[in-house]
Amino acid sequence: MRRAALCAAIAMLIALELAACGGDANSSRTGAAGASPARTKARGELILATTTSTQDSGLLDVLIPMFQAETGYTVKTVAVGSGQAIAQASRGDADVVLVHSPDAEKKMVAAGAGIERTLVMHNDFIIVGPKDDPAHVRDAQTTDDAMKAIAGAKSKFISRGDDSGTNALELKLWKAVNIDPAGQGWYEETGQGMGATLQVANQKDGYTISDRATYLAQRKNLDLQILHEGDPALLNVYHVIVVNPEEHPNINIAGARAFKDWIVRADIQQTIAEFGVKDYGEPLFFADAGKPEPVP
Predict the structure, then answer these.
(1) Helix or strand or coil: residue 204?
(2) pTM surpassing 0.90?
(3) Is-contact 260 242, C-beta < 8 A?
(4) What's the CA dihedral at 188, 193, 194, 198 to 10 degrees?
């Protein structure tokens, strides 16, 4: 009897151990041995893939702590170019994206990787360059004229070259004037974000295209001046997109939707609209939730 009882106890311990191991395996994002534990609602971790402009401008430093304090989610922010952010989310490696590359965003949604694309805000792009303005960009009447002037003068132009929304806009502008700058001695790609690219342009007395928010946030450390602005072709629109849980069942859909609903809420839109006014004398972004889609 004692031997039978001992065997039964051992069997029960083995069963409990196997159940525990099975539970750990099921909590893995991939189910593979050694994989990172899956994010769960109980843990409240949310991965936001976004563009460097929201980070470099300082906007996320305001919004993310507010969202975390209110909702209890812990947000992991990955700030890269919009193209990289969309690619990351399309692989299921993020839960929600906040980006500014409309053509790439629409492709993401059309491919089924993203859902609930929602308008959040806009600002604009600007062409900045050295004070002496060797290409006379300041005299350009249109953005097309400005791009032609830079190429015609063979003035140094610093491109992000990182598949970002800014880079996509820049390449679209070159194409509009039938100029291919790739490989030209005056054209240089950094492969970096907006803040770093502005610093390179500053060091090399070059021109670049920047979103207004990042430029204003870094202006005190730059000699670059705004030389061309205000053209409708330079409109810069931001959307939030939820990653499709039907394509990636392990994403934090509850957290993604919570962030999407939160950032378009009236009081948060007011925070966005006021961001930058105190420090820079003008807003860095214009809140757009619930409004018609801005168009050039």
Answers:
(1) coil
(2) no
(3) yes
(4) -50
